[in-house]
Design brief:
Blueprint (H helix, E strand, L loop, with lengths): L1 H31 L17 E16 L4 E13 L15 E5 L9 E2 L21 E5 L3 E13 L11 E4 L2 E3 L8 E5 L10 H5 L4 E9 L11 E10 L2 H20 L10 H20 L10 H27 L9 H8 L1
Parallel strand pairs: 1-9
Antiparallel strand pairs: 1-2, 2-6, 3-5, 4-8, 5-6, 7-11, 8-11, 10-11
Helix pairs in contact: 3-4, 3-5, 4-5
Length: 344
């Protein structure tokens, strides 16, 4: 009987403690958001600059398109700042030290990807179309943290000079056009700006390897410009596929071009083999050209292809001359000085 009474007492105590905690949460949220304005920067003085720490943690490189010059990746965006309007004493609210609120109920910086390929500039932590809202973690001292998973298409200027042995660099730049440096100050969160996985696992599915990833903490002293923070990522293309698909056929065609001269002249197949080899080279070159953007510099593969095609053209021209000489019926007397040389 006594054990039953103790069990019931424990259950009732836990139940009432849960109700009390729930009431503290509700009371705290009501007091914090009672006179809160989501359209005003949370600073004590309008001349004060609000510092925002921004961290970028890439999770997976999905695609690198050199024709459209973009890199598409999934990542975590982390923001941290101080809101002086959301400070409370934990002792007055059941020792609550943090709460989670939807970002729609508090002020949030309109941060977006400045070098995005999207048609419009949109904050990265807006509520999704399916009704799910991003939550912000708020501490009792007013510190706010937001972590947002997203997929972005980043515009990257591709240098195709060494294609397919090229190394590309993408610089995602985050910032806002709504404020200037006298209102907001962005700084890179170096600790959270790391790859979520190893370099090999991050880019393995896209055919690239990550050579370098770091945050570039830039400070612009001009108060009239928009605040921003830049990250840099250096990517190297996996070349095995391109060596097998592009370079080995070119080398085989170059060898076939030289083997043309081993065919007997009377067969009349030298020119046919040379033309077929040149046609295969041209098709292979056009297929590779469709995968490359227009560039003022000639890539290494194009130079190699032009050299092999020039070799094919020279082989066809020499074969034409040899066949022409072979079928000539003109008898040419050997000069005396040649006979003397041959006799010696």
């Amino acid at each position: 009987m006594s054990s039953t009474i103790v069990t019931v007492a424990i259950i009732l105590s836990a139940f009432f403690q849960g109700l009390q905690c729930a009431s503290f949460d509700r009371l705290l949220v009501e007091n914090l958001l009672k006179d809160y304005n989501t359209d005003v920067r949370p600073v004590e003085n309008t001349s004060q600059v609000l510092e925002i720490s921004l961290g970028l943690q890439p999770y997976r490189l999905l695609r690198v398109d050199v024709v459209e010059q973009l890199a598409r990746m999934s990542l975590w965006l982390r923001l941290t700042w101080q809101d002086r309007s959301l400070i409370w004493s934990p002792s007055q609210y059941g020792n609550l030290t943090r709460i989670n609120l939807p970002v729609d109920t508090i002020w949030t910086p309109p941060v977006g990807l400045l070098n995005s390929l999207e048609s419009r500039f949109a904050p990265l932590f807006e509520s999704s179309d399916d009704g799910l809202s991003v939550l912000a973690e708020i501490r009792y001292d007013g510190q706010i943290k937001i972590a947002v998973p997203t997929i972005l298409s980043i515009s990257c200027l591709m240098d195709m000079t060494m294609y397919p042995f090229d190394i590309q660099r993408c610089n995602p730049k985050f910032g806002t056009w709504a404020y200037t440096n006298k209102d907001l100050k962005f700084s890179a969160d170096v600790k959270s700006s790391i790859l979520a996985e190893s370099k090999e696992a991050f880019a393995s599915s896209a055919g690239w390897s990550v050579m370098e990833y770091r945050a570039v903490d830039q400070h612009d002293n001009d108060t009239n410009t928009s605040p921003s923070v830049t990250f840099t990522m250096q990517l190297r293309r996996h070349t095995t596929y391109y060596i097998v698909i592009l370079f080995l056929p070119c080398l085989s065609n170059a060898m076939l071009t030289l083997l043309v001269f081993l065919l007997p002249t009377e067969t009349g197949e030298r020119i046919g083999v040379g033309i077929n080899t040149l046609f295969i080279m041209w098709v292979n070159y056009l297929r590779a050209l469709n995968r490359m953007p227009k560039s003022p510099d000639l890539p290494v593969f194009c130079k190699f292809s032009y050299f092999v095609m020039f070799e094919c053209v020279c082989a066809i021209a020499v074969s034409c001359l040899l066949i022409s000489f072979y079928h000539m019926n003109v008898h040419i007397e050997m000069p005396d000085w040649v006979k003397v040389r041959c006799q010696r």
